[in-house]
Design brief:
- The complex is a heterodimer of chains A (110) and B (912).
- With 110 residues, chain A is mostly helical.
- Chain A is built from four helices and two strands.
- Chain A has one domain: Arc Repressor Mutant, subunit A (Orthogonal Bundle).
- Chain A is 53% helix and 9% strand.
- In chain A, helix 1 (8-20) packs across helix 2 (26-37).
- The longest helix of chain A is centred in the last third of the chain and has 20 residues, at 82-101.
- The termini of chain A are far apart.
- With 912 residues, chain B is α+β, with helices and mostly antiparallel strands.
- Chain B has four domains: 2-73; 130-360, no CATH class; 378-551 and 778-909, no CATH class; 567-767, no CATH class.
- Chain B is 51% helix and 14% strand.
- The longest helix of chain B is centred in the last third of the chain and has 44 residues, at 772-815.
- Chain B is globular, with a radius of gyration of 37 Å.
- The termini of chain B are far apart.
- The chains are: A mainly alpha (110), B alpha+beta (912).
Amino acid sequence: MNNKGLGEFEELVLLAVCILEGEAYGVSVKREIEQHTGRSILLGAVHTTLYRLQDKGLLKSEMGGNSGKRGDRRKRLFQPTDIGMKQLRASQEVRQAMWQRIPQMRTDSL
Amino acid sequence: MSTENMSQPPRFWYAVLRYGLGNQFHEEFIGDLEEMYEERLLAKGKRYARFMHGVDTLHLLFGFSKLNINRYRNNFMIKNSITVAWRHAMRQKQSTVLNVLGLALGITACLLIGLYVQHERSYDTFHEKADRIYRINQPLIWRDWDIQFASTGPNVAIALQQDIPEFEALTRLLDFPSLTVRIQPGNADYHLMKENEFHAADSNFFSVFTFPLLYGNPETALVEPYSLVLTEESAIGLFGKSQVLGRTLEFKDEDGSWQMYEVTGVAANVPENSHIQFNGLMSMSSFPMVKEQQEWKWIWTAFSTYALVREGADIDDLQRKIQAIPPKWAETTTQRIFNQTFEEYCAGKEWWLYMHPLPEIYLSEQPYNHRFGPTTNPMLVWIFSTIGGLILLLSCINFMNLFTAKASMRAKEVGVRKVLGSLRRALIGQFLVESFLYVLVSTLLSLLLAYLVLPAFNTLAGKELSLLQFFVLPTFWLLLLTFMLGLGLFAGSYPALYLSGFRPAETLKGKLRQGFRGKGLRNGLVVMQFTISIGLVICAVLVQKQLAYTSTFDMGFARENILQIHNIDEVSAHAEVLRDKWLAHPGVTQVGKSFSVPPNVWEGERYKLDDPEFPVTEINNLRSDREYLEVLELEFLAGRNFDGDPLKDRHKIILNESAVEALGWGTADTYMEDSPIGKYVIQAFDDEHELEVIGVVKDFNYVTSHIRIDPLMILHYENNWFWNYRNGPQFLSMRVDPDVLRTTGGLPKLLDSFERDIRDIDASVLFDFSFVDERFEQEFRQEYRMGQVLNLFTFMALVIACLGLFGLAAFSADQRMKEISIRKVLGARMGQLFFTFSGEFTKLILLAILLASPLAWWGMSRWLADFPYHTPIHWWIFVTVGLGSLALALSTVTYQAVTIALRNPIDTLKDE
């Protein structure tokens, strides 16, 4: 499985969805990423990315129940699909392997 | 309840979102948006929350419509329209380029002119109290009392302050022609420089005007005597840095002593769009004579008086009130200086005061000039605005013409579309989208063009205009958008509504091709275009002729090759020695002394005749020696020049023609019967000495050709009946052999030796020189420049008109292809075909010439009537311009005509 087409931001969104475990919707994903990266993100960017990942089959979603909060409007809750998890893991492995090849970072050279 | 209300984000955005995205995402998005809104409301307040809410909504909207085009309803149609428009544009590349280029050129010209006009109108508007500041003007009491004069005596301000409570403050400026400055006192190797823009200002100057100080206190900087405020630029120029508080400078007094000034303030550089320009301001209290000698105070007209009016004051009422000031206050002056009461002095004329609003000073026709900075001719701004409007109109007409012409060839396409079920609305939309696209592309192109050519335009016009400042103005974009929508709608609506209304069966049968071509309208527009551009060309030719006329016409003296050495009064004891020494130079043919030189002969006095009936008359004075008149090569109509022996003729005078006429002694024709020679003119001041006339010179232009030649009296430079305000003649002028000027290094060598001669006498004297003709040219520099700019835009108008004609000719050639081919088959010759084809356009151009000529003649004769000396309007100008534009138009059409006439009839006829 190659991870062609998984951009940096897409990866961040995917990771955030995994972290949030069933509680992932627009605002919570945005908050999660902002908290970890320290950068400020527009809601629209999160939403478009969520939908793009869904179109690619890496995420799936369903409408949640009424919460009584936010004007009693339902949320769309996102979850990673199996392919999504696989892709995330693959991208992690690629990185890990490459990190290992950086001479200054090798433990034996210390 | 209130918190409940507070937490509601604006409903408006939900409607936008619903419209843009449909109901599909509505709920979850609005939920998210609302959640974030509440969060931001608590964290950063309502304004931020509302703003970010809008940003987020828009972002979602754009994000999702880009993600999936089909979700956005109109996108498909617009995309299709754009594709069709693109294909049409590509199919006829030539006409597309012509169309876009013509429009872009027009908009560019209009943008540049708009920038220029906007800049000219922005003068002096940066002062915070600009709407309450007025300059006090008075009549030009030295000459024509009907002319407004921008300068007053120093006591006008004092009188206004004392008598009229509506004035919050009055402040004065006093100008010095030139000053010599040194920055290292006592040091033999001091640094001499001429500072032209040093004025004296009252201590409240900075509280009236908004010239911010970088260093120093604006309240107190000009209070103490011998205080000096420099601009940052001159501070850096003099000291190499801008923080120079407490540093000292020395100015040379008229008597040759040095006066030290301390820098008490550094002002930000004066903006270019200020009518008051200065490098430095000295405190008015440094000049005790402004306060002393009360009797002078109303005729020492070297001051500009500015009044700050209290808020809410009735200006018309105030304007009436201040008229009481001169009769009440000027009496002492007229009594002491002229031995006259105020009424006698005015002699029926009115000494009015006029409050000139500050923002209008730069663009006013009167006063023609003032001492502290630039003014412009408001006519120029008016002319440019008109031309800008006309060029834009031209290019819009062009655009409409070509667009409708092209659209009319698409009747078949429209028919097919209708047969296939297209709604009329969609067809209208198609044409409108196309025309909007053209306008959009042209506008963007013109913005780029304007940005690129602006530096060149600035050099040409001598301005520092910038386009960037407008890019941040919402008004600019709004205006541009309105223009684009307006033109797009206007140009697109004609084909859109007309073509889309036809029945498909008829258009497909070809009925439209015969019936409708919009030809009448197009021909009318072509005539209008050429009327405008031919009219512009005629006007431009006449303006050029007038400029050339005023700057080159006979000044009445030989103004070429006259070199003037300044500051001779500072070495007055040695003037004779220098004169003899310089006359000995091989390249110098004559050297003369004078107190002033054209075009700056501004002194004047009042004179009367023995006849008590004769009114007191103002006559200008030029003080010189015999040789100076020879340098100028003045022509004597009667009498003689001064005698070589200075003492013999020192109290004699020479008049010019105008002065003789003003004194009632007739014109040049009557000198034979009744010679003015030997008559006496009497000073209407001081001891009332009698001056004998020994000569009359032909009128020569000693001020500027902007105004009529006034009476002039040439006094002997040693005449001791006049107040000597300098130590002696300020200038040594010499006629230089033109061969010396032409040889390389000839002039520098000459100047070098002159400079050395002066330095040998007194090293503190600044060496400065000028040429008479250069001085006169400076007067015309602005007009010359504007003439160039005018040429450029006239040329552009002509190019745009020709582009349009070229496009139309191409269209017409296309339409008449079959006709011409059939004519050819039937035996028509090349020449005949050519004339058939171009005759159509010739008629239009001839009509345009007939329309443009009287219009241009009428306009220009009115414009020229304002000049005291003006070039005649010759009939041949109209003929030449008319023939020229006809030739240009025909050569534009010729290419098409020749192509069509040369074509093999087979090619065009075979498909039927």
